[in-house]
Amino acid sequence: MKEEKGKDYGKDVIMLSKSEIPTHFYNVLADLPFQLEAPQENLEVLPQIFPKAILGQEMSTEKYIPIPEEVRELYALNGRPTPLQRARKLEKAIGTSCKIYFKREDTNTVGSHKQNTAFAQAYYIAKEGYKNVVTETGAGQWGSALALACNHFGLNLKVYMVKCSYEQKPLRKVVMKMYGAKISPSPSNETKIGREMQKKFPNTSGSLGMAIAEAIEVAKEREDTVYSLGSVLNHVLLHQTVIGQEVKKQLEKAGESADVIIGCVGGGSNFGGIALPFVADKLAGKEIELIGVEPKEVPSITKGEYRHDYGDTGKQTPKLKMHTLGADFVPEPIYAGGLRYHGMAPIISLLANHGLVKAESYSQAECFEAAQLFAKTESIIPAPESSHAIKSAIEAAKRYKNKTIVFNLSGHGLLDLSSYEKGLGLV
Ligand SMILES: Cc1ncc(COP(=O)(O)O)c(C=O)c1O
Predict the structure, then answer these.
(1) Class of domain 80-111+241-423
(2) pLDDT beyond 80 at 2
(3) Ligand 1 within 6 A of 346 CB?
(4) 268 CB less than 6 Å from ligand 1?
(5) What torsion do the CA atoms of 362, 366, 370, 375 make, to the nearest 10 degrees?
(6) The CATH fold of domain 45-61+113-227
(7) pTM for this model (two decimals)
(8) Which residue out of 367, 410, 419 has the highest number of ligand 1 atoms within 8 Å of its CB and is therefore the one to mutate?
(9) Which H or E run contains 24?
(10) 269 Cα to the center of ligand 1, angstroms
């Protein structure tokens, strides 16, 4: 039979070929006219818990760092490059003259952007001969991504999962266990800091700060074990820049130029990933708004102080200059578990302090309503974290005329359905 070409319905879904997966991570620090302030205290901990390659990237001011071919291949096999998609039905529902695009990090194998850094970190850890990795997870997305990556490189993974997520998201545990990871709810009885936290805050729902403290304690005590963090630090944002580099190419293909870039912010990695590659354009005079969106319940940029603070509740990490609500802050058990962190990435904090990044905050109720509108119009159930970016994109589309708005859909919510059931009263 003669092969016929069907009608192309793809103009609103902008794809890249596998060979267009970025070849380098982009380091925004090389382009900034100002510098990050050095961390303070506990600096001796860093080489005890991180592999050398990761520490090198954490301190690096090289503009481009090559992505190892094995990592690029894993990206290719697990969803990269991800599509950039136009949200025409959402635009129509709002009645806006703006164009709204979203970057589909939900299409990655484990359902979020977190695997971009997980594959890179697991690669460097395995290359340096370590066998065991320990981490924390808030919503379970980071734990799932690192479990996938560690399994690929033959590494054993232990995850301390924030207690309220452990209870709210049982299926996330199954994902991590499928890939062979071991999980404990945090605070646990397994670490000194976990036992202390339980004494200090009886019946606590846990926090990322506590779970990080437990993981770091374990990594500090064991020679053969390293720690891996899924957000906040420079090297994590660096790895996530594959997102924004792809978006740039995709906008070019579509003949578009972004006026507004939006991402939700927990520790700042998915927002950094999409926004940092646009910072140099902004510094060169292009008018572009970069908006990080946080929960009203955890307002680290909008309400926090800009000062040196610990990354964990156990105060074992160096103090980083960042926007913080205080290392002892225990957030409400909101359903966007990945946004319940007391601090903000030093790079995002610095950019916010210099007015290059704006911050907005919305309540869980407003964001869940936006998530439902997105599901009804664009068919995708977003992660509760990503619903913050959707809410902000809707507000921008109402505020402006004829602008091009791009937001990062950092993950899907198909394992967060009980959160929507409760949060939206869908019973
Ligand atoms: C889907 C999703 N989006 C966003 C976040 C927030 O983290 P970050 O600010 O590092 O992107 C998380 C964290 O777990 C997440 O799972």
Answers:
(1) alpha beta
(2) no
(3) no
(4) yes
(5) 120
(6) Rossmann fold (3.40.50)
(7) 0.97
(8) 410
(9) strand 24-26
(10) 7
